[in-house]
Amino acid sequence: QVQLVESGGGLVQAGGSLRLSCAASGRFFSINAMGWYRQAPGKQRDLVATMISGGTTNYADSVKGRFTVSRDNAENMVYLQMNDLKPEDTAVYYCYTNLRASWAATYRDYWGKGTLVTVSA
């Protein structure tokens, strides 16, 4: 059973910073990608940032230059450093991973339960 547990959300004023962390636990064979998505009230879940195992990153245009995704592969952790936060960044942030549970399994997506980030004007 794969579990993703996020931490680090909270309330911050516009222009401030937060750092989200996510730990993957359970039994799995290999991780392809880890990263973050977010869902604002009344909107769909959208990509924020991801990093694949080779280190290639992918960011939403709205966060480029402000957010940085990083991974600790030894600890199966992914982080999201968020700087210069804006009210429009307010959302529930979900940790994401694409992994395979065993050498014979196919890669599939897993999600955390989410952590709320609220940015006040």
Could you describe the largest sheet, including whether it forms a barrel?
7 strands, mixed
β-strand percent reads over 45%
* Class per helix and strand makeup: mainly beta
User: Would you count the extended β strands for me?
Assistant: 11
Radius of gyration: 14 Å
Number of helices: 0
Mean pLDDT: 96
Helix and strand run: EEEEEEEEEEE
- Uncertain segments are none
Shape: elongated
First and last CA, distance = 40 Å
Helix fraction?
under 10%
Polypeptide structure, described:
By secondary structure, the chain is mainly beta. It contains no helices and eleven strands. The chain has strands at 3-7, 10-13, 18-25, 30-39, 45-52, 57-59, 67-72, 77-82, 91-100, 108-111, 115-120. Strands 2, 4, 5, 6, 9, 10 and 11 form a seven-stranded mixed β-sheet that branches. Strands 1-3-8-7 form a four-stranded antiparallel β-sheet, with no helix packed on it. A hairpin with a 5-residue loop joins strand 4 and strand 5. It is elongated. The N and C termini lie far apart (40 Å).
